Amino acid sequence: MTQARPAGQHTVRRHNCALVLAAIADSPGRSRADVAASTGLTKATVSTLVDRLAGGGLITESGRQDRPGPGRRGTSLSLSPRGPHGLGVEIAVDYIATCLAGLTGEVRELRVRRADNRSLSTARVLGRAGKAVREALAEATARGIAVGGVGVAVPGLVEEPTGLLRVAPNLGWHDVDLPAELAARTELPAGPVLVGNEANFAALAQLWTSGPDGARDFVHVSGEIGIGAGIVIGGQLFSGTRGFGGELGHFPVSSRGPRCTCGARGCLETLAGQEAIAAKAGVAGLTELVAALSAGERPARSAVREAAGRLGTALSSVLNLLDVPCVVLGGSYARLHPWLAEPLLAALRARVTGAPWSPVTVTASALGSEAAVRGAASSAVRGIMADPDSFVAS
């Protein structure tokens, strides 16, 4: 057994730096004395760390505090809107997206580049992703913004400990080391590269943008060409023991259904994914589908009702197993919410055993198809917040 060793000075500083930054993020406008009181650190230690964080561009000091009562007012501390940003990258089946997000949550730049990546080789798609990253980094430089970390969202199984993409069925990818592949195609910043499933990043974006009064227990369903689910319980993402959880699209819903890219038959995404609904409705894509639904065309509405029944069959199993009361429709499902929610809710009420005592709700994500890339960028930001001293020292 390895014997524990005492924390060195650098380790203590890293811990305390994160502690001070978190205190400022939780209550913007605090003074150094307030931070010392809330963290239990000495005023001298807080002053040294505040100077270090300010020198690294993570916080700003802006005038005297605005607070009631007598006594000397300290200098107000807050996160710097021009501090290090997270870069989010999403490699989807039919597009590549990038997003720059700051410490305070604002999105500086979000760009989507449309293409059917299934028709391209892995190298070609990675080349396009590398170009998108280079363009985003150039945009950050032009704005005078440092990038302190990168998050990469992909539609497949990602091993959380290693960041290795094991399989992305709809892209036909196997065992792709995305950090290494992107590093070979562009000069990545010194911070960490976080790789994760797009549905998980989308669920985190939903959680982080919904505010303190938002749902803390929900299943976020990313309905695109494939279907993924991000499961949040008690305000924490549940992704399984290795990160492979949430593959809702591969729930079997018909033993005689079409062959799926995963090799099985009758998977949910072959019958209720974006392309399956459009084909059933007799339209070319999502935009045309929404137009047909808005016009009240019967084939379109019938196709959505049928998809809602399939989706309800799969989701009811998830809700019965995990006792989660809320479904958030994301991706293309968010745009279909006006027509999809009612038949889906009816299916869930009929199948979820606890529904009479714990009502199920179905809501639409305000982030839609931007959720995954925003979640990837925000995850990179949170990596900076968790270890700001490493960014300052880089």
UniProtKB/TrEMBL annotation:
One of its GO terms (molecular function) is DNA-binding transcription factor activity. The keyword Acyltransferase does not apply. Pfam families: MarR_2, ROK. Residues 17-65 form the HTH marR-type domain. Keywords: Kinase, Transferase. SUPFAM superfamilies: Actin-like ATPase domain, Winged helix' DNA-binding domain. Belongs to the ROK (NagC/XylR) family. It comes from the Bacteria. InterPro entries: ATPase_NBD (IPR043129), HTH_MarR-typ (IPR000835), ROK (IPR000600), WH-like_DNA-bd_sf (IPR036388), WH_DNA-bd_sf (IPR036390). This is Sugar kinase of the NBD/HSP70 family, may contain an N-terminal HTH domain.
